[in-house]
Write the structure tokens for this entry.
Amino acid sequence: MAKKFDYSLDYEHLDLRQKPELYTVGRGEQGVLLVEPYKGEILPHWRFKTPEIAKESSEKIYAMFLDYKKSGDFIGMDMARKFLQMGYTRARRYTNHKGGRKYSKEDGSILPYQNDPVKAESAAIFKAQWEIAKTDEDYIRMKKEHQDKYEKENKEQSRED
């Protein structure tokens, strides 16, 4: 079983490029808006308002994914993958719910669905780039290496404590 993302770390003051042993892949987009310096590097490029903006954004983030790969920085690759995934999921949220709000403030019920074809196209653009990133052979290999080196050791260590 995969190690859960550790929300208790002081991400505001941590540079996980310097301390890769503290990074946990987690599930889906966990930590995408926490893990520095990657959040600060990638977030300024993350946009999905129109298909044109989504294309430019997803291409830039995927280029960053490739740059991180070239420098052997798995955490950067994983964070870029998470931003691509989040581009897809957030654009889908706005496709289905104007303003991005899924639940009613009043009673918590799910608001009526709509279909915004512009946001749907933006979502499809991000999804295509996300699929390429998450199936990259080097990414898959490096993810396994990171988890074997850091996440499984921590699991065994906590059993000893």
